[in-house]
Amino acid sequence: MGIKLAISGASGKTGYRVAEEALKEGNQVRLLIRPNSHLPDNLSQCDLRRLSLADETALDEALEGCDALVLATGARPSADLTGPARVDALGVRQQIASCKRVGVKRVVLVSSLCAGRWLHPLNLFGLILVWKRLGEQALEQSGLDWTVIRPGGLNDREENLEKEGILFTGADCQEDARIPRRLVARCCIEALKTPSSIGRIIEVTSDPDLKRITLQQALKTINALAS
Question: What span, in angstroms and rounded, lies between the C-alpha atoms of 41 and 64?
Fold first, then answer.
């Protein structure tokens, strides 16, 4: 039996894939999107809430009754350099606060490889990696059952993914490899089903030559190497 899962940023390229993968697993999904955002047609019949993250009442109502939240919100590169601060730090904090108010305990955050690094080209877009790390830290300190997924460079490739392996590592182990958004979405759903992922930052990249393993298997290896 599935869970009732809220997905914020569900109109984004990663977010709508999270929604699709959640539905495949038999979950009930509630999609949280901006007022003017558009969804793919195959998600148009889902429970949909259009809101601003700054609207506490609307956010609380959207999360009420949900078992978990996947935060797939993220600032997009633009001329507005305040976006990363508003979305990746403040926006994450607003959603965490709402989860605590309404009793949503389980949260998965989609962040980014190299979060927290200052010397990185992505920081030309409003210090985006710095703000992403502040969002991660807010979640780590929240008291919720959290998992952070840090994907590498994202692409929209959909072909041959069933044969592609994922490299799962702990924090600050990877730098520049890539991963399709579809596989990131699957990682989020897998994390929700993997209790040992709670309290972990998990970096993910992929390669067709990698052996396919589960997140649970990977975490056992990560723990063994750390002990």
Answer: 25
Q: Which tens digit of pLDDT belongs to each residue from 82-107?
A: 989 999 999 999 999 999 999 999 99
Domains and CATH numbers, the chain: 4-226 (3.40.50.720)
Torsion of CA 183, 189, 193, 199, to 10 degrees: 90
Tokens standing for residue 119 = 């010397």
On whether the CB atoms of residues 110 and 71 are closer than 8 A, the answer is yes
For 175-226, how does the pLDDT look when each residue is reduced to its tens digit (9 = 90+)? Answer: 989 999 999 999 999 999 999 999 999 999 999 999 999 999 999 999 887 7
- Alpha-carbon separation of residue 60 from 49, 99, 121, 137, 150 (angstroms): 11, 8, 36, 22, 26
Q: How far does CA 38 lie from the centroid of its chain?
A: 19
Give catalytic residue positions.
Answer: 112
User: What is the spatial distance between Cα 208 and Cα 86, in angstroms, rounded to a whole number?
Assistant: 36
Report pLDDT digits (tens) over 140-171: 999 999 999 999 999 999 999 999 999 999 99
CB atoms within 10 A of CB 49: 17
